[in-house]
Write a structure and sequence with these properties.
The protein is an alpha+beta fold and 437 residues long.
Length: 437
């Protein structure tokens, strides 16, 4: 289009020059018989006429230039209207505080809104009691769960006194105890803000203990089996979790937690113990409860700190906690004939806990986690003095977890634990099904 207009302009100028040249030739060709004054007058008329023609051509050139600019604006407007909507939506620049996706990621981000994934810890297969990812504000999670635990232990009790180190007067009681615990729980979590959530857990516990006892030097060496069970509501738990920071660069997510455990379950002092009189020395009964408790019998408060560090393709996580058990006064237990045996004040030992592990995403739906859970339980005190038979107990478990996202709002979590110390349950199996709403 520009070449056509330029061609027409140069044509007009060329024609003007030719007209002027012909006029000069015509003036030079005037017969000599005309006077010089007449020739000058003719030339002046030709020059004036040529000036009019030049002014006309200038006006035409200005009009053509204006039409050219108008045509260029029309073409540019047509090109903008013909552009696809997706490309037009990307044209506006995001504000300076908007988080732009990295080159090559291709994930859609609304202008002015930070990505949701950057505000939350990454989701991994949970293997500990506390989940890593928090519930979004206004949403809630219902999590039914089922946990099975099995443990076995052997104990040799020497009831009597020694005259010399090689001679015992009394009984030798050899026991093998097998314990099974099944806990069904319903947990609810609510998101209050982007960094704060609260939780309530309602457990129902079923326990079964099988004890095989063999008393030596009583006239018989036969084994006796003693079975006890119990099922009732467990200890209800309330908890809150808060995300302490917003990581930048190579810094982990930090989540603080506070958990309070009630004693709504049946405690060990409410069940009947198999003793006719006092159970000291185990001379008038097995000393075992006829019905198993479903709660600890003590209130406890547990603050904790959890950290998660994403390091593609893995996520490293861990935590530390401290459980303070509140003591009780004027405690007594019930024996077989309905009498109450006074125990006094009882204060369970406090618990230090630490755990760590690693999670790995297998694909967009499933992930795998492995970790270790360590707990150190202090000595129990009775009437302000440590119980003679109580020692600090070390509990340790190796945990393997698998998570499968069944739907965008439902996930299946399976955890298997193996005891690493003699006081830890030999096997634990947990199945959880959190559902988001």
């Amino acid at each position: 289009m520009k070449s056509i207009i330029a061609h027409r302009t140069w044509g007009a100028v060329t024609g003007s020059v030719m007209v002027l040249s012909s006029a000069l030739v015509h003036a030079q060709g005037v017969p000599a018989r005309k006077s010089a004054a007449e020739r000058m007058e003719a030339l002046e008329q030709l020059v004036v006429e040529q000036g009019r023609q030049i002014d006309t051509m200038r006006q035409q050139l200005r009009e053509q230039t204006a039409r050219q600019q108008e045509l260029e604006r029309s073409v540019a407007e047509s090109e903008r209207n013909a552009r696809p909507p997706a490309a037009a939506a990307v044209a506006p620049a995001a504000p300076p505080d908007a988080a732009a996706p990295a080159s090559g990621e291709g994930r859609p981000v609304r202008v002015g809104t930070a990505p949701q994934a950057d505000l939350q810890p990454p989701a991994v297969a949970p293997i500990f009691d506390q989940p890593g990812i928090l519930t979004q504000p206004g949403n809630y999670v219902i999590e039914p769960s089922l946990q099975y635990g099995y443990s076995s232990s052997n104990r040799v009790a020497l009831v009597g006194y020694t005259v010399i180190p090689a001679l015992l007067i009394g009984l030798i009681d050899v026991r093998e105890i097998k314990r099974s615990t099944l806990t069904a729980a319903l947990t609810g979590r609510w998101g209050l803000t982007r960094r704060l959530e609260v939780e309530a857990k309602l457990p129902y516990v079923y326990r079964s203990d099988d004890s095989i006892s063999r008393e030596i030097f009583t006239g018989t060496a036969s084994e006796r089996a003693f079975n006890a069970s119990g099922h009732a509501l467990g200890d209800i738990e309330l908890a809150a979790r808060y995300q302490l920071n917003q990581p930048q660069g190579d810094t982990p997510f930090l989540i603080g937690s506070l958990r309070f455990k009630t004693r709504t379950g049946k405690d060990p002092f409410e069940v009947v113990t198999d003793c006719v009189t006092r159970c000291e020395g185990n001379t008038t009964g097995t000393g075992l409860p006829l019905e198993l408790p479903t709660g600890s019998g003590f209130y406890s408060l547990q603050p904790g700190l959890t950290w998660l560090f994403p390091s593609d393709p893995a996520v490293f996580f861990g935590g530390i906690s401290y459980t303070h058990n509140f003591g009780r006064s004027n405690v007594s237990r019930r024996v077989l004939d309905g009498q109450q045996e006074s125990i006094g004040s009882v204060k369970p030992g406090n618990v230090w806990g630490i755990n760590f592990g690693m999670g790995l995403a297998l694909n967009e739906r499933s992930s795998f986690s492995v970790g270790v859970d360590l707990n150190s339980v202090g000595r129990t005190k009775q009437n302000g003095v440590p119980v003679a038979s109580s020692v600090r107990t070390q509990l340790s478990s190796l945990l393997l977890g698998y998570s499968y996202r069944y739907s965008p709002k439902t996930t299946l979590n399976v955890t298997v634990g193996a005891g690493l110390t003699r006081d830890t349950p030999d096997l634990t199996l947990s199945v959880r099904l959190p559902m988001s709403f």
